[in-house]
């Protein structure tokens, strides 16, 4: 007995079985981030940067600085893309990790093609409260 006449119908049945739409069970979303703990108190600095060139990269950093004006610890940072217009920013940080009795500054740098072109003069941040810094002006990098 030859199997050749049965091959084509069997192949078609297999294809139809594979292509039929099956009901999918809902699956739980998998997340790899830890949810914020109830004790974590997030605050934010917000404002806007004036003079950011188009196609540039901006990095803002909230830093604890020492008496020699050198960064000791990074508290938070954010990276943004320049659009050639006023660039709004929001920098979130953990208020519980904000050092008491130490100097904290917001600093920024603007790069294009990996080269420093502008900077944000240091802005002193005196408390861990959320606050608006308003418009901040960038200056050419030395």
TrEMBL record:
Pfam families for the chain: YscW
Give UniProt keywords alphabetically.
Lipoprotein
Q: Which domain of life is it from?
A: Bacteria
Recorded hits in InterPro entries, A to Z, give: Pilotin
Name recorded for this polypeptide: Uncharacterized lipoprotein YbaY
Question: What is the organism field in this record?
Answer: Stutzerimonas xanthomarina
């Amino acid at each position: 007995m030859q199997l050749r006449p049965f091959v084509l119908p069997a192949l078609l049945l297999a294809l139809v079985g594979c292509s039929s739409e099956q009901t999918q069970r809902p699956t739980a979303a998998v997340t790899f981030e830890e949810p914020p703990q109830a004790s974590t108190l997030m605050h934010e600095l917000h404002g806007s940067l004036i003079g950011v060139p188009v196609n540039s990269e901006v990095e803002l950093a909230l830093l604890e600085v020492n008496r020699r004006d050198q960064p000791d610890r990074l508290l938070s940072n954010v990276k943004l893309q320049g659009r050639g217009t006023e660039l709004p920013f929001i920098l979130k940080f953990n208020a519980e990790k904000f050092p008491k009795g130490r100097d904290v500054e917001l600093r920024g740098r603007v790069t294009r093609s990996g080269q420093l072109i502008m900077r944000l003069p240091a802005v002193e941040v005196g408390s861990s409260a959320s606050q608006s810094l308003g418009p901040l002006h960038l200056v050419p990098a030395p």
